[in-house]
Amino acid sequence: MATVEYDSAGGSESRRYRSPLRRMQAAQTRAGVLEVAVRLFAERGWAGTAMRDVARTAGVSVETVYATFGSKAQLLKAALDVAVVGDDEPLPLADRRVYKAIGAARTTGDRIQLAAHMATSINERLYRLAVALRQGAMVDATLADIGADLDGQRRRSVADVAGLIMGRRPHSAQVDELWVQTGEQVYALFVDECGWSRVRYEAWLMGRIEEILHRPV
Length: 217
Known about the structure:
The protein has 217 residues and is mainly α. The protein has helices spanning 13-44, 51-58, 62-69, 72-85, 97-104, 108-137, 141-166, 172-181, 184-193, 198-214. The chain has a domain at 73-214.
């Protein structure tokens, strides 16, 4: 039997080393469940994605999924958060390198290009999950609140990015138009319904951002 050494406070050294390992394992489990949840919600929607399906596909117990995320609604919210920023790191979009690059770009054209690219990348990851959110919001008040909160966050982000591009606070009418034009539903209409490529959509979005921000208000 291995000997366990104790420190002066009475705690075992093995417990201290086990704690980081457990945190790492918990983080890996969370990441695995989230990867599955993003895919299943996007493919099957809200009603078609059961917690037991997520658990089985991720190779964990249903109890583990509930213990990690609390509810199906919170699991979808976590999946949406991942879709917006691209990972599960607790770093807001405004603190991300892609966001900061917009403000650091030298010309207005460069800033518009970077903003359009960021919006396109977010929409590409998000738009099918947003369908699941709208489905769920019709039957789950928590999801309705989550949807309203995400809409508010996106509107604020749109205003902030427009300010970075222009070097001044945008007019509310400009924010209104940008909020609509950069939304994932418009992306879905062009890509899924009209058959546009991502490249074509991004080029269109660059033109729309430039036109909206340069038009007199």
